[in-house]
Amino acid sequence: MIKNYLKIAWRNLLKNKTFSLINIAGLASGLACFILIALYVADELSYDKYNEKANRIYRVNSDIVFGGNNLHMVVTADPMGAALKRDFPEVEEYARIYTSNGAKLVKKGNSFINEPNVAHADSTLFDVFTLPAIEGDTKNALNEPNTVVITASTAKKYFNTTNAVGKMLETNDNTSTLYKVTAVIKDIPHNSHFNFDFIFSMDNVDYPWGTYLSHNFHTYLLLKPGADYNRLQANLGQYTDKYVMPQAKQFMNIKSMDEMRKSGNKLDYSLMPLTDIHLHSDRFPELGVNGNIQYVYIFSAVALFVLLLACVNFMNLSTARSANRAKEVGIRKVLGTEKKSLITQFLTESSLMAFISLLFAVLIAWGCMSYFNNLSAKELSIKELFKPGYIVLLLLLPLVVGLLAGSYPAFYLSSFKPISVLKGKIS
């Protein structure tokens, strides 16, 4: 039966080439816009979810009001991570990232290249985040000074191979320094809130260590499975009282935190889930350019509106052509065709047209992808559509669109009365 419906639907499409072309073109354009926007939204929502422990990773944020300054920062004091791990059983591990040194000049051949995507970090960075090694072992890769971990593309850039462990890189930060490559990791995915090409040892940072009042380190916590981060966040004041206030009393003439708050000043810490950083954080200084959840909502609404508009357009064209199908419906009813069979036939035709439109929509989206990437500052690929998670939705899309767009014409056409049709009373 289905084969017969498809055969009749295909014949009707070929018989009415102009109508079919117009309807397919309109629906394909709408679907192409929907696909491009949907890829953008899916990419925005996917940030940092590549990490296997993403649901247990939190960044420590700082809110400081002092001396007329109101600071909402993503950096903390250098000893904070270690102190939290030591004092709170919920914390399994911590990792710090330091970027205040800025870009580095790295020597290639006889010249130095300015590399902006650099950072200093602890070896625990690789225990917290999913940054798999291609060469070497990341477990202790940054435990010694003058060591560096680089990405695969960086290794190819400087050594023409990913087999770079044990080789030396020279930097020029006022003085020349040689760093030993201890590991090569896969390129960090683009949907990460940080993206570094070089990760240098924290031991090479020239810094007044142990200062609880100076905030220059991005601190991330990996909580133990089942740990309640809200409970940990509520107890962060204990860290302030135990470690920060003694130095504040010594250097800032502050007697207690209550006195500090009464004077209109404050120092509070909070935890932000890793997967919320890209779309929900507008603090300073971020490690990359963040998005905005409001844009995700807006673009999602636009995508659905465009899809709905394409379906309504399909509906209108199909209904407007109903007069040409009236005699067909009348004759088939006289011959005994049931109403539900007619509805199924018309829905099959609309679904077939939606499927053909989808094929053209994918081609249109593929052709427009480079322009869309330039416009949205993304690195999207049409290959994303063919991943297991997306391919099911892609196959369901023409079915849903076909049923949605073809429902009204199907019920409208199948409701024609044979006598009125054959007597020419339907106009």
SSE topology:
Elements: H1 2-15, H2 17-45, E1 57-66, E2 69-73, H3 80-87, E3 91-98, E4 104-108, E5 111-115, E6 118-121, H4 125-128, E7 133-136, E8 147-151, H5 152-159, E9 168-173, E10 175-185, E11 198-201, E12 218-223, H6 229-234, H7 236-252, H8 257-262, E13 266-273, H9 277-280, H10 293-320, H11 322-334, H12 339-376, H13 388-414, H14 418-422
Parallel strand pairs: 6-11, 8-10
Antiparallel strand pairs: 1-2, 1-12, 1-13, 3-6, 3-12, 4-5, 7-10, 8-11, 9-10
Describe the structure.
With 427 residues, this protein is α+β, with helices and mostly antiparallel strands. The chain is 48% helix and 19% strand. It is built from 14 helices and 13 strands. It has helices at residues 2-15, 17-45, 80-87, 125-128, 152-159, 229-234, 236-252, 257-262, 277-280, 293-320, 322-334, 339-376, 388-414, 418-422; strands at 57-66, 69-73, 91-98, 104-108, 111-115, 118-121, 133-136, 147-151, 168-173, 175-185, 198-201, 218-223, 266-273. The strands form two sheets. Strands 1, 2, 3, 6, 7, 8, 9, 10, 11, 12 and 13 form an eleven-stranded mixed beta sheet that branches. Strands 4-5 form a two-stranded antiparallel sheet. Strand 9 and strand 10 form a beta hairpin. Helix 2 (17-45) runs antiparallel to helix 10, helix 11 (322-334) packs across helix 13 (388-414) and helix 12 (339-376) packs across helix 13 (388-414). The longest helix has 38 residues, at 339-376. The protein is elongated and about 90 Å long. It starts with a helix and ends in a 5-residue tail after the last helix.
